[in-house]
């Protein structure tokens, strides 16, 4: 899929993302791509299980993911999600901050992650609210529409509220929390200030999701210092920018056009930067 195929986000999508802090993209991945990714994950699962990059939490959480197989690298610029992510962030001096695989096996008593927002600890705030500088795209590879498989839970609008969302005493989840019921192949784009968690997996199947983070190149990425040259050789110019390549010494902070090939792509589609 090519980036040129994407249309601009609709006013409704922009309004929903600004209001709720997240957007569901139905059919972001076609069924054959979902099947290919599940096949690759199955082939790599033992190696990923033993990876030194695996987080020691319930289930399997490995990052960075794009170094494991070209199938994961391709999703970094996927045409149904990447342009939306760029438009929501509102500028072109961007990088990939993280890529990771989460596999949540059945366990009705345990979550793979509790309620939190993203962005690092500690993170600076403006009047108690995190400024919008990062977002994530989650690609869901298992069908979560009919089963309680531990889907992503979010608190809509929590990115606009200072501190933790409202909680009833003794409740497991915040007030107004919703669990997203998604078809396999759907994606969710959410900004780092949205409070979210993984619901317990009550089914007898494993939930699989891939997350890709994007944010300003003024901030340090989560996953890497320098990407391997052979990986950069596989990338488009925009992909190399996302993975940290720059042409000048100040390329992250005062970039020239050569430092940010995403700039011309952005201006052609969206006009000049909308978030200065």
Architecture overview:
The protein has 276 residues and is an alpha+beta fold. The protein has a single domain (3-269), classed as q2cbj1_9rhob like domain (Jelly Rolls), CATH 2.60.120. 22% of the residues lie in helices and 17% in strands. It contains seven helices and nine strands; from the N terminus they run H-E-H-E-H-H-E-E-E-E-E-E-E-H-H-H. It has helices at residues 11-20, 31-49, 70-74, 82-89, 229-232, 237-242, 262-270; strands at residues 22-25, 60-62, 94-104, 134-140, 152-154, 178-179, 187-191, 196-198, 207-216. Strands 1-7-4-9-3-2 form a six-stranded antiparallel β-sheet. A three-stranded antiparallel β-sheet has the order 6-5-8, with no helix packed on it. The protein is globular, with a radius of gyration of 18 Å. The model is unreliable at 1-5 (pLDDT under 50).
